[in-house]
What does this fold into?
Amino acid sequence: MGLAWRKTERVGVPELFALLGLASFLAARALPLLSLVPTCPFRAATGLPCASCGMTHALVHLARGELASALRSSPLGAALAGSAWLYAALDLVRCALRLPWPLLPEPVLRAAARAGLAAVALNWAWLLWRGTA
Amino acid sequence: MLARCAHCQKTFETDHFGVQGCPHCGQQVHLAEPGAPAPQPPPAAGGAPPPWEGGRAEPEAPPAPFARRRELGFLRSWLDTWKLAALQPAEFFRAVRISDTGSALLFGVATLTVSSWFQTFYTALMGAATRGMVEQMLRQLPQAGEYQSAWVLRFVSGGSALAIVARLAGAPLLALAGLLISAGVFHVVLLALRGAPRGFDATLTVVGYASAAHIIGAAPVPLLANLVGFVWYLAVVAIGLAQAQRISSGKAWTAAVLPFGLFCLCCCGGVAVPLIAALGRH
It folds into this structure.
């Protein structure tokens, strides 16, 4: 189960994802995102946070370098934002240096996907615990 | 007998096998005789067979009509692709080429952008009426104050002229971001279910062309048109994922519905639960 490499076009789907990550950073720094996003209807109706509650706050806090506030808002949101920006930086470097794209083996991707879904559930459980504690 | 053209996907009557021209698009079509050996595809790059056929390579699939837009014209190729993706998703996604993700993305961005422009136009025209209707609905909620906090009402009433211009200008970018994020989310669930043997390109192709269903959002029926378009889109995505990824319908429907189930729990559920409770009290 080794890592393979694939020569790709200079700009393709991976670069679109990288630009999306970069755009999220710039938007979090430059736009008043917290006043643009709506109140969570689930929280308003039930008093409980939904699975994605706090993610915009985490994104904005992390973009301003406030790691503790970002983690407090949503650990998963902070992790997702950080991963997206790291990916964007790495991919733009890879693209500039014309390096090949790493192809991860299917079992690794599958394990990562399952870990991601488990992280969503854990994050929601944490938000619920924090909201009711 | 009835034959289907591998290029334009249209059917035509013929009385013989072998190579012949499609009466619709003029492309050469090869109709193999039943029992004849299948034509040998060229070996895959690097000698490694693709993983989805247990060592037997699939012949290259025909491109979607939209991928031939230079030849057919933008509007005609968009319309042909729309018909196939929205009305015959099983046949279309079974046969479509998955390596041309750029065309699928462009199709999705064009469709979502047009739909969004129409919605912005209607919102600007009917904003006051829609706002009144939504305000009346929100008054039924126990925590109505939370919703009256302007955002929802500002959204449904269209906002200022600047907001309308921003929505028109930002529509293509938001469409692109939405397509990439939703394809990513679907693919994560597919991977977790062992349901992505043909990779991310197949998922992205399905999400791009399935956006055809969102064009119903261009109909002048505020809120309802979007809801119908969304349900139609989910159905096309589920059928498309099953066909394009060569997986069972159960896995495909789970991948299509699970993320939106969570999303609806957040957004629709938050509205539906108190509304149902309020209705129950009357």
About this structure: The beta strands of chain B are 2-4, 11-13, 18-21, 28-31. Chain B is about 60% helix and 5% strand.
